[in-house]
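Sample A.
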Amino acid sequence: MPQIFVYIAHRDGVVDDSAAELLAAAQKIDGSASPIALVAGSGAELDSVCNSLRSSCNEVWKIGHEALAYPNAELIRKALVKVLPPPGSIGGRAVIGNCSRGCLAAGRIPAAINAASAYP
């Protein structure tokens, strides 16, 4: 079964409004898959966001580091490359994401988290 990862944007310990839409989109990609939330940041705010997602996601992957306290697209991309399984190694995957607060500026957002993308 493919895994679907959803990058969850947040600010000040509060999940971005887009999270619910992204989780719904993940279900539309594959209704049998349970989306895995990917959350990057640091400190108590990151912990708060991860805890709030536990009721809507079976798995929450916390990517914590002081360097991620402020969203930086390049650092987040590097972190995602390190934690995500290689495409095709698990029967395919999809990674979807959004950042309506502009924390990942257009043109600097990795394609994998810019929009719904399926990897065969």
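Sample B, a different protein:
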Amino acid sequence: MKNLTLMGLLLFSLAQTSYAGLIDSELSLKIIYQRTSSSSIETIGFLTTATVAEPRVEFPSVNDLQVDGINLTLVDVSINAGDDFIEIDFTNVAGFSGFASGHENTYIFKFDSVASVNIIGAEIDSSVTTLGLTSSDVRFVGNELFINVESLAFNPGTFVRINLVVEEKDCIAKYLIDGSLNIPCVSVPDALGGSIYYQANMQFVPFSSPFSFRLTGAQQIGASNSESDCLAVFNADGILNLPCVSVPNSSGEEELFEAVMEFVPQTSPFIFELLDAHLKN
């Protein structure tokens, strides 16, 4: 049992390359200007995309995004994204100045997160933000964050931090017709007798008998879903209990199953064999 416990810890620690949220997801940025509400919208900073990683500043110099042939010059801020925040730093700028006035002078961030959280809003972190933003300047629509900085004064010491409001996805695992299995929440024992929580992804192994799944990725997540009835549990004996698995039937409708898997020692990539699956009562 000790060996299986260590193997289980190794199984997820090898996949622990990032945390749920923005890390490892793509974040797009563009900057727009609109003089009045009836004016046409101009793109003054062209659309660019970066993969969020720490420690790294995703957009170290916004001047690099300057669109040629327009009368407005971008303010050369740097923009850093973390797991659940956006930061705008003004260290690059020289002296005291201000953003051009208008209806919109706006940074637009588009999120494409594959993590186990849904971004549902954004809030100004007033404890560190020194730019004169108000709540009406920050909007979250769909999967886009808008930060309107028109007319606001700044200097090299100005700083902005926007905290993202997230909600955990439910813990129901989902099996798709392409053979992929997403497990949003799985508890794994740690070396101190506690638990660490992960999101895990698996892929069905074709022609396997018994049916088997290969671990393709995992991310550590928070413990907010630790009391969920659908929390998957990986035990020290190598058994993985999945109390809620959504599976499409022949009509395309979702049915809810319970499933039990067993970790196969000395497999690389890590393999789990299906021991049992039945409709959930």
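Observation for Sample B: The chain has two domains: 26-168, 170-279.
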